[in-house]
Every structure is written in C-alpha cells, then in structure tokens.
Amino acid sequence: MDVMVIGIAGGTGSGKTTLTRRLVERFGADVSVLNHDNYYKAHDDMPFEARRQLNYDHPDSFDTDLLVRDLKQLRRGVAVDCPTYDYTVHNRAKATLRVEPARVVIVEGILIFENQALREQMDIKIFVDTDADVRILRRLVRDVKERGRSLDSVVGQYLSTVKPMHEAFVEPSKKYADLIVPEGGNNQVALEMIVRRVQHHLDGR
Q1: Cβ distance 39 to 64 under 8 Å?
Q2: CB 105 within 8 A of CB 36
Q3: The pTM is what?
Q4: Which DSSP letter does residue 15 get?
Q5: pLDDT tens digits, 118-146
Q6: Which of 83, 109, 113, 194 has its CA 20 to 30 A from that of 63?
Q7: DSSP symbol at 193
Q8: Is residue 25 a contact partner of residue 142, using CB atoms and an 8 Å limit?
C-alpha cells in the first residue's frame, strides 16, 4: 500500500487537532491518526504527586521509539494497538487504541519534528503557528474542562515547563516544516491546499 505520512506539529493549543479533525472529516477511512500524546511514558512506579511534578513538555517524556515502530507498521499495512494516556492521573492508561492502516497517516504532536527518526518517516511536515496568548487561553479552557485540572495548576505548569520547553524545543523545530499554517484548521486557504495534496495522493497521481 502506498502510504503518505503527514506530520502536524505546533505549540500547545495552536490548532493541530482542529486541522487533523478537518482532514479526517474530509477523507474518513482513508486517514488514520497517531497522536504523540498517547505515547507518554508510563510511570507506574511513581506516586501521583511525583508524577504530577514531571516535565511533560520535554522530548524525554515520550516513548517516541514506540511511535516510530507503530508508524512503520502502519506503513507496511499492519494495524497497531497504540497506548493511551489518562491525564487525570498523569499516567499511561491500561486501555489501548486500535489504529488501522490507511492510505494517509497523520502524526500529531507538539514535539514530532524534534526527533530525527520520526521526521524521516514523514512525507509532508506541517507546523501550525498561532500566537502565544491564543494558545495559552485555549490550553486553559481545555485542561480545566476536559482534563480535570485547576486553573492554578494549568498556569503553574505553563510558566514552569510549557513555555520554556516550547521555546527550547517546539519553536526551533519549525525549521523542519515544509508548510507553516497560521491558525491551523481555521485557515481555510491552507486547509484547501492540504486537501488537494491529499486527494492527489489518494487518486494515485
């Protein structure tokens, strides 16, 4: 199977998920998604308070080697059972997520361009670029509403790890992008360009 891998990177709250969702809505079963966030390392040996203090925005917090192996399996047409993550307990969940092979595989995450082995698996690298004030507001809403965090904990994490790790790892990885998209899935012109490129691949041209 001729598989095209699209990497969608960008800072927290930048609009990566919106762009990914728009492509899935457009192409349905022709697209599979691997989310880097599902590949956070397990810390079963650590108590909750210790896990809560970990830096989850550093490349070392991810099992990226496993993600690369799963991506290679999908390229070969083999389904994978990727891990999942429970943000309420800061640890890998016991459940896995079945991801079926497809003609297009999207890899999404803040740090996916930081790892060379992962980058080399990508045919198109897209960086979603959004103002920092917009990103932090989106993260506040998401983490409080969807991940059970307190406002103080989100702000504290942003200032202590999210912002410095963005500046150290995420922003510099933008140089690897083939396409930089302001505002992600809300950028209709860029979305239509990407849709045309995916359709071109699916049409076998």
Answers
A1: yes
A2: no
A3: 0.89
A4: S
A5: 999 999 999 999 877 777 777 778 777 77
A6: 194
A7: H
A8: no
Q: Are 112 and 70 in contact (CB under 8 A)?
A: no
Contacts of 180 by beta carbon, 8 Å cutoff, 6+ apart: 126, 127, 129, 174
Range of the domain at 64: 4-202
Q: Tokens in use for 196?
A: 């045309």
Residue whose token pair is 């297009």: 104
Structural domains in the chain (count): 1
Give helix 188-202 / helix 16-27 axis angle, nearest 10°. Answer: 40
137-154 in b/e form (b: 16+ CB < 10 A) is ebbbebbeeeeebeeeeb
Give the separation between CA 185 and CA 191, rounded to whole angstroms: 6
User: What per-residue string of b and e applies to 85-115 under the rule 16 or more CB within 10 Å gives b?
Assistant: bebeebbbeeeeeebebbbbbbbbbbbbbbb
> Whole-angstrom Cα distance, residue 77 to residue 131?
38
CA pair distance 77, 34, nearest whole angstrom: 14
- How far is 154 from 136, CA to CA, in rounded Å? 9
Strands 91-99 and 80-86: antiparallel
Residue 167: CB partners within 8 Å, gap ≥ 6? none
Q: Are 35 and 109 in contact (CB under 8 A)?
A: yes
Query: Residue 174 maps to which CATH number?
Result: 3.40.50.300
Give me the sign of the Cα torsion angle 193, 30, 18, 10: negative
